[in-house]
């Protein structure tokens, strides 16, 4: 909270008036991040997804991202954190991914069955895992490419209608 207060040019008391604890601040920061940046539109699913992951990687690797990572780590992966993150920012976090996939479906690069929030956001979940679980200060570009080429694209391109 000291780092956040310093960066915001205020004091911790002011932060605690708005966010009662570090957990709620982390959720608010995550939600803001998920709703303020427009997804890329390169004309290619692979390029869009890779650029979106690169942007996220740059953010999570930045000083602001370090603060967010520390807040999430301080929460200790608490069940409360996971529930609130999903509840308060799940739809917002999925929206840009669903936009990227919707464009890809319109271009014939993915099947309509890929338009599922859990499927759409798996690449970001894997990137977040690099930071939160592995403690990486930044994910190498090779990891991003692996996430896209080995997991994301095969998943969205190969997804078919669920069995009846």
TrEMBL record:
Domain spans labelled Tetracyclin repressor-like C-terminal: 39-151
Keyword annotations of the record: Transcription, Transcription regulation
SUPFAM superfamilies listed in its UniProt record: Homeodomain-like (SSF46689), Tetracyclin repressor-like, C-terminal domain (SSF48498)
The protein, known as: TetR family transcriptional regulator
Protein's organism: Streptomyces scopuliridis RB72
